[in-house]
Design brief:
Length: 751
């Protein structure tokens, strides 16, 4: 103080006066135990802190005094007070990401550093998220000056050993260990900290943006989260992010799967046939210069360009300002990032902030486009033009040959891909009487729908003239009481959609007392079809479920069987599941083919169909709509050839002679036993259609194997009715033993 007195007497006198005043308050020496002390003696405390809080900086610095273990700030600067005031009365300050356990460990670390002299760097990036008066979340990083805090052990404390300290240093996340070594109420922290806040909104928002963009496709709340981040960066409270893709081939903007995550404002409401961004000149500038383009006043642009579809659209959407930025890959503009606001707050000046975020947006869009393309190709391969692994080698061989010639600049035509001398195998597990079941479900739903309409009409006032429409209603109810004809469904649906529903809406508008009646009726309808969809839904869902169940068994088993000898396999879902298989030496020329592989594949096919029947018996009990199935195998021993049809992107039999096989497949499904009305296929039985005696003998042996395993039981030998262009077919119909255990899939040599 003497030095100060000699250098600045007025400063020394001021300090002496404060010190003399402080002597009147023993709490300043012995410790303040009640926070009310600061409120009662606010003037004195602010005088004591004057050197740490220069008045000239109160409007600039974000600063306050904090106390250990108290969420309480004293003597905040004017700027800090304004920030807290704008955050609202209900705002509660808390450190982002600092849970109670973590806070406890951090407090223990202060003891290690200050008491045990362990060299620890405790400067952690603590963040406070504080909204402003417009709801924009700003991020503040804060630093603690703890020079004015003392750490003291209490009477019951136990000094830690070097080994215990080392154990703690290696186990930051072990909260129980820290509580064991630093039991509660063993230490005392006295004093205060000077807390300094720094506005790190842009820095933190960009960091959050990177995190969100990494998980772009997995976050259900992505849209509001991205909008929140961009609002923090641009300080625009209602800012929204959009994206619109460009189709250069068709020269127009288009929607892509990305718009499932990020909306398009350019395409909001309608599609465009030309590239025009508020005016053609501005769009061309955007694409050619590949720089940001802003519209600070949409209304003004609309007045200047009244014929612009985009200007009109943005104006009608209530958008007042916007920024557009091109996404570029390989020197090509993929699309446009859109930032829009319903306030005049976006302009060419804050558009420069796009420099910060564009690298992350460009990388993300690049990744999304690559992911979309990969998924598209996968879907095409899986659902439309799948190339079975057994024949993939030949497609690859042809592709490599084609690429090789193009390097030499030859115009090389694609060669036909064929496989010759293959034995076909065909099988199906068909849903029995699916058309009858479908019609019955439709009929029940329509009957319920008409009954609901009848109930609604009864509740309506006699003021409404419903006589004529009631007569039609009765007519359609009587029509449904008979067998469902081909056009009955469409007649009833048209009656409901075109006459009943418009009438109900008209009555509802004329008399509000009927609102609830009509609303209750519509609640019982399917939202998409606006019809009753109860029994049909059960049927559709059950049919889909059965198809998937049966297909999964086939797909899984065929993958296992491919290990024996590769065979071509394809499977189709209809009202049931059917499959084609082809086996022969041309499928895999590098392997030695033996007829035993065909016999084993036939046994495998019979076993898989048995497995499907056995498992389905139990699965049927889980269905909402009970469906029966029947199974069939076609035996065809004459070798055929298959060719890949480039126009249809699938394999088909090659040549008119081989087409006979396809004719038989299509006609045996609903064929009958000769000289009877009985279908060849029956639930609980597998029908094996053949034409040659040696085929009969072979399948009797295969059936015997499964009879010995108690999977199959009695056999019937039948003749198939003569079909158009086909006669002489016969059938073995064998019953499935539903008491059998799971089928054994051993590989049998020499069947």
């Amino acid at each position: 103080m003497e030095a100060e007195a000699s250098d600045n007497p007025e400063y020394a006198l001021s300090h002496q006066r404060i010190l003399d005043k402080a002597k009147e308050f023993p709490e300043l020496l012995n410790g303040i135990t009640n926070l009310n002390f600061f409120e009662k003696n606010e003037t004195l405390m602010k005088e004591l802190l004057r050197d740490l809080f220069p008045p000239m900086l109160t409007g600039n610095e974000i600063k306050a005094i904090g106390f250990p273990f108290y969420n309480f700030f004293f003597n905040p600067t004017q700027r800090f007070q304004n920030i807290l005031k704008n955050a609202g009365e209900n705002f509660d300050m808390f450190i982002k990401g600092l849970d109670p356990h973590r806070f406890y460990v951090m407090s223990c670390c202060i003891i290690l550093r200050n008491f045990y002299n362990v060299p620890l760097n405790l400067s952690m990036p603590f963040i406070f998220d504080i909204p402003n008066e417009e709801g924009i979340v700003n991020h503040y990083r804060f630093l603690n000056n703890v020079d004015f805090i003392d750490v003291n052990p209490l009477e019951n404390f136990k000094r830690l050993t070097e080994e215990e300290i080392s154990e703690l240093l290696d186990n930051f996340e072990d909260y129980e260990l820290w509580k064991e070594k630093f039991p509660p109420k063993n230490w005392e922290l006295k004093g205060f900290a000077v807390v300094n806040f720094f506005d790190a909104t842009t820095e933190i928002a960009v960091s959050n943006l990177k995190t969100k963009l990494i998980n772009l496709e997995d976050d259900e709340n992505l849209k509001p989260e991205l909008n929140k981040i961009f609002r923090s960066i641009f300080q625009v409270p209602d800012l929204e992010l959009g994206y619109t893709s460009i189709n250069h081939e068709e020269n127009k903007f288009v929607k892509t799967p990305i718009n499932g995550v990020i909306d398009s404002f350019i395409l909001s409401g309608f599609n465009h046939s030309r590239n025009e961004l508020l005016c053609e000149k501005n769009f061309n500038t955007l694409v050619e210069s590949r720089k940001y383009f802003s519209i600070s006043d949409v209304e003004k642009v609309y007045r200047e360009f009244p014929d612009s579809d985009f200007a009109k659209q943005f104006y009608e959407l209530g958008i007042k300002s916007a920024i557009f930025a091109p996404i570029i890959k390989n020197k090509k503009v993929l699309g446009i990032i859109e930032l829009v606001s319903r306030k005049k707050m976006l302009n060419s000046i804050n558009a420069q902030k796009m420099e910060i975020v564009m690298p992350y947006l460009e990388d993300t869009m690049d990744r999304l486009y690559d992911g979309i393309e990969t998924r598209i190709q996968a879907i095409i391969q899986r659902e439309y033009t799948a190339i079975h692994p057994s024949v993939y080698w030949k497609f690859r061989q042809e592709a490599e040959r084609h690429i090789g010639f193009y390097r030499e600049e030859f115009d090389l035509p694609y060669r036909k891909i064929t496989f010759e001398n293959l034995t076909p195998l065909f099988g199906q597990t068909d849903i029995r009487n699916s058309s009858v079941s479908r019609n019955l479900a439709i009929k029940k739903d329509l009957e319920i729908n008409l009954m609901l309409i009848s109930d609604v009409f009864k509740d309506l006032s006699s003021d409404n003239d419903l006589e004529s429409i009631n007569l039609k209603l009765i007519h359609f109810q009587e029509l449904l009481a008979k067998d469902l004809k081909a056009d009955t469904e469409s007649q009833v649906q048209n009656f409901i959609h075109n006459e009943v529903h418009p009438l109900l809406e008209s009555i509802k508008l004329q008399n509000v007392n009927y609102n609830q009646i009509v609303t209750d009726y519509h609640k019982q309808l399917d939202s998409k079809t606006e019809l009753v969809y109860q029994f049909r839904k059960k049927f559709d869902d059950s049919l889909s479920s059965v198809n998937k169940f049966l297909a999964d068994i086939l797909d899984k088993r065929q993958e296992e069987q491919q290990q024996r000898f590769p065979f071509y396999y394809e499977r189709f879902k209809t009202d049931g599941v059917e499959h084609n298989m082809y086996i022969g030496s041309s499928i895999e020329p590098e392997l030695t083919y033996d007829p035993i592989f065909l016999k084993n594949l036939r046994l495998w096919q019979l076993r898989v169909i048995c497995e499907s029947e056995l498992h389905y018996k139990k699965y049927k009990e889980t269905l909402d709509y009970s469906l029966d199935v029947s199974s069939l195998i076609l035996v065809y021993s004459t070798p055929i050839s298959i060719r890949f049809r480039m126009d249809e992107k699938r394999f088909d039999v090659d040549g008119s002679y081989n087409a006979r096989y396809e004719m038989i497949k299509k006609r045996i499904d609903k064929s009958q036993v000769k000289n009877s009305d009985e279908r060849i296929t029956q639930p609980g039985k597998i029908s094996i259609i053949y034409s040659q005696d040696r085929e009969r003998e072979e399948y009797l042996k295969l059936i015997k194997i499964l009879q010995d395993q108690n999977v199959l039981s009695t056999i019937e030998e039948l003749e198939v009715e003569d079909l158009q262009g086909i006669n002489g077919l016969r059938a073995l119909r064998v019953a499935v033993n539903y008491e059998a255990e799971d089928v054994d899939y051993e590989f049998v040599e020499g069947v």
